[in-house]
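I'm curious: can you give me some protein's one-letter sequence along with its backbone structure tokens because I've never seen that pairing?
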Amino acid sequence: MIFFILAGGYGERAKPLSTIKPKPTFPVNGEPLIKIMLRQLKDIGLKRGLINLHYMPETIKENTKTDLDINFLYEKELSGSKIIKRSIQYMKDLILVINGDIFVEIPLKELAEKISNSDGVLLVKSHNTGYSSVEIKKDTFVGTKKDNKKGAFMYTGVAVLRKNVIKKIDDFSFLDTLKKHDFKIKILEYNGLWLDFGKPKLYFESNFKYKEHIDNLTQNSLSNNVIISHDSMVNRSIIWENSIIDNKSKISNCIITGNIKLSNVNYKDKIITKDKIYNL
């Protein structure tokens, strides 16, 4: 089995953060999300994979240095799930497809067991408001719907698919392709930690949920080369790399987007960039 991380999107929902970094490289507890994902893939035994590149491709590549065997697929125009079709030449039979802006502890063993006698498996979870639901009969995928009533399930952004399915992908969302063809697609319910980094507020909240998950009890999420003076107070904030906070500054519940110096300021619930300050 190989993996495919979908990492080419513009991150429109994540602005203004995504104007500075692509979503897969947003720091989570000070480490780029995609590095966390690649380490997890290595730990569960996957050695080869693909990453698609479109928006800020070099930033993605800079954050994917690993001993895994990775091929990068460049897109001149963003094609959504259609890019997955280009994985055929690298596949034997199975591919693990992962959205690049989420965190999930991938239950690979359970997914592999579930795919027996089927064409694919979608990892789903109890519904979060704001996401489309997957329509299920027994334990089989039959389509998608906007309904998100209690008891519904949503797609987590993780799937294992066979080569015969990949060959048929011709829609921006491969779920639409699955609906059109007579594939046998199973679902596996996921009850573990699932985090979405797609919007600034979600990114902020998910950062601290992740810290709690890994038992990191420090109050801030700091990237490399962050300096906070002894006379400044920083509380429950995310600070990207190469930032300085000094001269009696007070920062609380903020995202500071890196390469910034703040002196004698007082901010709460803000996104602070070099050019502008936004409400979080």
